Fold:
Amino acid sequence: MATVARRPFELLNIDALLDDEERAIQDTVRRFVDERIRPFIAEWFAAGHLPVADLAREMGGLGLLGMHLHGYGCAGTSAVAYGLACLELEAGDSGLRSLVSVQGSLAMYAIYRYGSEEQKQEWLPRMAAGTAIGCFGLTEPDAGSDPASMRTRARRDGTDWILDGTKMWITNGGVADVAVVWARTDDGIRGFLVPRGTPGFAVRDIEKKLSLRASVTSELSLDGVRLPQDAMLPGARSLAGPLSCLNEARFGIVFGALGAARDCLHTALDYASSREAFGRTLAGYQLTQRKVALMTANLSTGMLLALHLGRLKDRGSLDPAQISLGKLNNVRAALDIARECRTLLGANGIVLEYPVLRHANNLESVLTYEGTEEVHLLAVGQAVTGVSAFRG
Structure:
């Protein structure tokens, strides 16, 4: 017996949980992705390219950069609205959401929370408009999940600072006008603003990636980089500084990964409804419906979790372990959905004409960055047992 088909989020009437402003923002970002990203993303992914400068200005014009921050040209939206924007951006491609996430939740947030008023006035309005791009230099070749072991150092030389070290896997690095670089000092971990073109500061883009190809990923090298005293972020004095920025970015991922999963599931549903095998459409087989039902359940529960965490964040009561739980659950669910959808598309699932394997490849990186799955497992484990297992 045929019934009216409903999209996965429609089944639980997720839209009813949003207010008018949140729906309007989500619709605006969805239109932007449909018009400016979908027609070109397969080509950009294949070429390993993303027109960052043009897209940043367009997204700045829409108020998407640092949209959850207040003042300095930022939109000042709710956390839920920011999450919904991340969802729609990642439905286009994880690289697009990464651009916005690094710009707003890492680079801009670091300046917004820990910078001086002069630093905020100098950088935030331009970054919100998309006329200046930022990156966030924390990860190193030998210090990923354990940032406390970073080797980049900053030492005093009169009133100046001298920075030496290397940062790795830095999104937006090759196109950034300013890098927020974290370094070890005699006074703890401190953040520094390093403008492009500073003598001794070099950037090398990482090529031949199999994931996040529509994203700029770079290595930053600092060799005797001399900075004035006012290049240091005065409000950050320990590793808690960069970790708080990472929590902002992880929150966006909780929503964003669901966008990639939704795009995969919609693609698979459309394909299964039109593709015939053995005299009937794929959608009419019990095995197909089992897959679709389980994916719909995982996607919908992930969305309910994301919205709950967003409401907690808007009330000021969201803690890091809750963010870890959200990223742990939703990225794993999204990756599982992408892989399952690939099976429904058969051989067509491996070509860029369909977005499914592109999303799956990207989600392999999303699973790792902003805290690996193992790190979030330990964070959640510590929260529920009261015992830290990070160090033996």
The mean pLDDT is 95. The chain is about 50% helix and 15% strand. The longest strand covers residues 160-171.
